[in-house]
User: Fold this.
Amino acid sequence: MSTPARRQRAGPALVVLAAGASTRLGENKALARLHERAGGTALELLLAAGAALGDAQPLVVTGHEHAAIARAAPAGVEVRHNERWHEGRSGSVACAALYRPERDLCLAPVDVPLVPGEVFAALAEEWSRCSAPENGWLGPCVLQDGVQRFGHPVILGRGLARLLKGFPAEHPLSALRAQAAPLLSLLVASAAILDDLDSPADLARLRARR
Assistant:
């Protein structure tokens, strides 16, 4: 009698973090338009690129302006509100871990909206190649002037995600990263992993780049 095939673990869950108040930008980052065509908001662009990860139901974690983001989210996307969004990004990641229990999480901040699908696909492939380590952390990096610079999105293992249950929301994610084993990196070609949307000048620059 043959042995049943081992059940394959689902790939990382795509989580878009969109909870901030966007005070410096002056408008909601998730809904900021980077081009005028349909699908041109920061949220839509990031979700479209993140589809390369292969997650059937992406999760968007909101805070400020939850209702507006929920109305604008594409069909098939789950939107959840982090009521303690003002306490820090770690709280939004903990919220994601609650709604995606026992899943590895690919965290894509809406602040970095121009990451191409190739980066998401490469991260997913590398994560699988490394056997999806339970307590691992995988971040993309680029070389600039001979210096390695890390950006987003990142993948954290389901074991690290479990630790978020008792993790203070005000603590930075770097404190969680310090507990990762192994701590992995992937060299990518796209500097868009560093492109932060924070101010009106950033918005103009990213619009020009599109």
About this structure: Strands lie at 13-18, 59-62, 78-81, 105-109, 137-144, 147-150, 154-156, 183-187. The helical segments are 42-50, 66-72, 89-99, 117-129, 158-163, 173-177, 200-209. Residues 1-6 have pLDDT under 50 and may be disordered.
